[in-house]
């Protein structure tokens, strides 16, 4: 997705950390979708949770500063996550039907789809992708992309080209635009939301899915037994886990952790992401960056992660965690609660410094940031890592696959 550039020098001193929904709105707007700007005073530098400046909002609107960080999964594939400006330029002059695939379609919707797109030169299957995890039981963006790809295969003809297009989409926001407006920005001359063409019988059957198991239990068991079977099922849980990433700033640990958490959540593993920068904003707000404060920050992350694991969830944490003593305490807490996996993201310092999305290494080299890990404060390389990954040698998708395989092997074992 090509976004307009804006000089990174002389950025407004005032900053605002955007929520996941606001990041989706910003990405959509900067790529040519409906306009969006944050509420509040301007000028302001808009950042993600890692304090990376992404855009500047002022009286003239919103302008990009740096590209958005990407994660893994089919909904992050650049070939699918194309900006509205790029898609609109490509389809200009064609009869374009846009179909919004926001839910897994039923057979009845698949049946009517050819009629909904009849006569179109181009069909765009628009898949909404939120940075927030989907509601429990809902099919997330990765699954919807796979479904849309199957739909596209069934719709393509010699006369009609069909493309799957991933659209940044806030899970819930009063500023969320309407699909008709979004589709028009992508170049559509007509648009439909596929789920709105679900017939009533299917709506009722989908609505009843959650009660089917309980109904079968009630039919199979007498009432006292049924009550106990349902109670046992509600309290049953698998062992929880903590996946703990450690590595230098810019090593790629947050990117891999974020992608892993999204994939695990999409697979039904209740996953909580505890990223270093986000934790600093909330759980450890007010702590400094001296050794004692850093150790306390890591210990707090480890404690919360172990609570998640103790209730059967998966906690994915990604602080720098430079000291072996702090990591050892995290391991102790986590192993008492469930499975623990220590992942050392071993990307070399020179690569991390070259990435320098937040400009921190440059400031540390100038002496503006004291006790900066890797420059003026040591990083104690783990000798007990369960997995070592160098993101200068493997891409995000491969890194996620390695961590996921190691985690599943531990959980299954």
TrEMBL record:
Residues 240-390 form the APS kinase domain. It is an enzyme of class 2 (transferase). Its EC number is 2.7.1.25. It holds the Pfam family APS_kinase. It catalyses: adenosine 5'-phosphosulfate + ATP = 3'-phosphoadenylyl sulfate + ADP + H(+). Belongs to the APS kinase family. This is Adenylyl-sulfate kinase. It comes from Isoptericola cucumis. The gene is cysC.
